[in-house]
Write a structure and sequence with these properties.
Chain lengths: 443, 121
């Protein structure tokens, strides 16, 4: 009966919106005004052809007067009541509320939907702040500058005793930090503009696939046990967008080939006897270096001789990163271009030549890595077809950094290396940092 | 004798401001900017309060806090954590590792002063 109640109230509300008298609507629908009055006041059930006729006159879809729309509305109201249960909403009178105040009920429904959308967006932005090194560094720069400006200006404004030298110092600091703030916010705006809205950026197919792989631990256990397993045995594919699922299928096809060439048990045995040098392993199994790179990157830390996880990146001939498995201390950009000094790009410029190079990641935690890079060329269109280059770089953390290690960054915009020969654009990260001793000397 | 604060932070102008406002209130302030050697600085001259930034060169404030809390001599020192990130999970991590207080940037001079005074008891 509750459902009927809402239908009657909706008819009455819609009729009122259109300025129709009860008699006018009844006549148009071929029923008596008194019968319509009974319907509107919940004393007669309505459905079928009469509901369609009334909806037609009211210029509304019949479903919006009947069960489907009402259920969606009450579901949303109930969800909203659950979220705000501290207000002790009269849930037992929810149907009555929806019937008597359909407009207000729709407003609550709309607001509940908007709150949920915003919560999702906040969650996505939070994730992005966590996993997007550029955004994280930019926000750190902005907030640090704001903090310094706020503190210095408060010192000058609070009227306490302050010597002319300190006044001059804080004026200078405010000027420096406001310049830094202008630069970092400009870069941040440019970055966000280039990346589109946050929600969209969070759902790029490559991001989806990499989030799925991270969830799996960068390996596909079911395929390790049986390379020929059915697609629906692989978890998580159904939850992806169509584009991401297509990308995941390409990844899985390659993973299947890699596992068939280097089965888990045989690969682990070889690691324990030969070590983790990719060139040695590739020669032992008579496979290409990228296969070994990918297999090493799929292993958990405890499966590797040194107990260190491996990172892996890949790019095409345009330099676009097509695969990004990060490793702690070696940041990989999610948007924009990577550091041109990565051996990955060196390898892309001279395919079929293996490269081994120590690098030092220029970040707050300066850490050393041993990298192996190799590029291969395929001709999928056959003779005279365009070459397709795939360059791969395996990243192995080192406990000690070689003095000869090449300094590399993540991306020019958040790299503080001065005088870099490969710099494309200025950095938003401040580069001039005094040591406490230098500061003491200045004071 | 003045009470002593060790400020572990690497932003020069934030250092200057914090050092100024604390010194003006009679605190003795030492500064250290390298995460890797921060524990050595603490052991060299144990402060009454540590102000510890999260993002430091070479070693994060969280790692330093964790190491400090397992130190048999200085494990009980009050620590005020500073960070540009104030998400719930950051606060929870700081609390789990034993931070005495957690403050997000941008903070006011008054907030820093009152937090340090409270932590010094």
């Amino acid at each position: 009966m509750a459902m009927q109640t809402r239908i009657g109230a909706r008819i009455r509300a819609k009729r009122g919106d259109l300025g129709l008298r009860q008699a006018d609507l009844a006549r148009s629908c071929g029923i008596s005004p008194s019968y319509l009055n009974l319907i509107e006041h919940e004393r007669r059930r309505i459905g079928g052809a009469l509901l369609v006729r009334i909806a037609g006159v009211l210029q509304i879809e019949p479903e919006l007067l009947s069960e489907g729309a009402e259920t969606a509305l009450t579901t949303a109201l109930r969800a909203s009541a659950d979220v705000h249960n501290e207000a002790n909403p009269e849930v037992e009178r929810l149907d009555e509320f929806a019937a008597r105040y359909p407009g207000w009920a729709q407003i609550i429904e709309a607001q509940h939907g908007e709150v949920e959308r915003l919560q999702r967006l906040v969650s996505e932005l939070s994730d992005r702040l966590t996993y997007d090194p550029f955004l994280s560094a930019s926000m750190h720069e902005v907030l640090s500058s704001v903090t310094a400006v706020r503190s210095a200006s408060a010192i000058l404004a609070d009227g306490g005793e302050i010597s002319p030298e300190w006044q001059a110092r804080f004026h200078r600091n405010i000027y420096e930090d406001s310049q830094r703030l202008a630069t970092s916010t400009e870069a941040l705006v440019g970055y966000l503009d280039a990346g589109g809205n946050a929600a969209g950026a969070a759902t790029l197919p490559q991001d989806e696939v990499e989030a799925w792989l991270a969830e799996l631990g960068w390996s596909v256990p079911v395929m390790e046990r049986n390379p020929d397993c059915a697609r629906d045995e692989v978890p998580g594919l159904d939850e992806m967008s169509t584009s991401a699922a297509a990308l995941a299928d390409i990844f899985l096809a390659q993973y299947r080939r890699d596992v068939s060439a280097l089965p888990y048990d045989a690969f682990k045995l070889a690691l324990s006897t030969l070590g983790a040098d990719p060139v040695v392993l590739a020669a032992h199994f008579a496979v290409g270096l990228p296969v070994v790179f990918r297999r090493l990157a799929s292993l958990a830390s405890e499966d590797l001789p040194d107990g260190q996880p491996r990172g892996l990146v890949a790019c095409d001939a345009s330099g676009t990163l097509t695969f990004r498995k990060p490793v702690p201390g070696f940041d990989v950009p999610h948007h924009g271009s990577a550091c041109a000094l990565w051996p990955l790009f060196h390898a892309a410029s001279r395919p079929a030549s293996p490269i081994r190079q120590d690098v030092r990641a220029v970040a707050r935690d300066e850490q050393g890595f041993e990298t192996f890079a190799f590029a291969e060329v395929a001709y999928p269109s056959g003779y005279n077809g365009p070459p397709v280059v795939s360059s791969w770089m395996l990243i192995s953390p080192q406990t000690q950094t070689s003095e000869l290690a090449q300094p590399v960054g993540m991306s020019c915009r958040i790299c503080a290396v001065e005088g870099c020969p490969a710099r494309r654009e200025p950095s938003i990260v401040s580069t001039a940092r005094d040591t406490p001793q230098e500061m003491d000397a200045r004071l | 004798m003045n009470q002593h604060v060790l400020l572990i932070e690497d932003e020069p102008n934030i250092i200057e401001a914090i050092r100024f406002i604390l010194s003006r209130e009679g605190w003795s302030v030492d500064v250290h900017s390298d995460g890797r050697t921060a524990m050595e600085a603490i052991r060299a001259r144990a402060p009454d309060v540590v102000i510890l930034d999260v993002m430091l060169p070479n070693k994060s404030g969280y790692d330093i806090l964790s190491e400090l809390r397992s130190d048999s001599t200085h494990g009980e020192l009050p620590v005020l954590m500073l960070t540009a990130r104030g998400q719930k999970k950051d606060r929870e991590l700081a609390a789990r590792l034993g931070a005495s207080r957690f403050m997000t940037k941008p903070f006011s001079n008054g907030e820093i002063l009152s937090a340090v005074s409270e932590l010094a008891g």
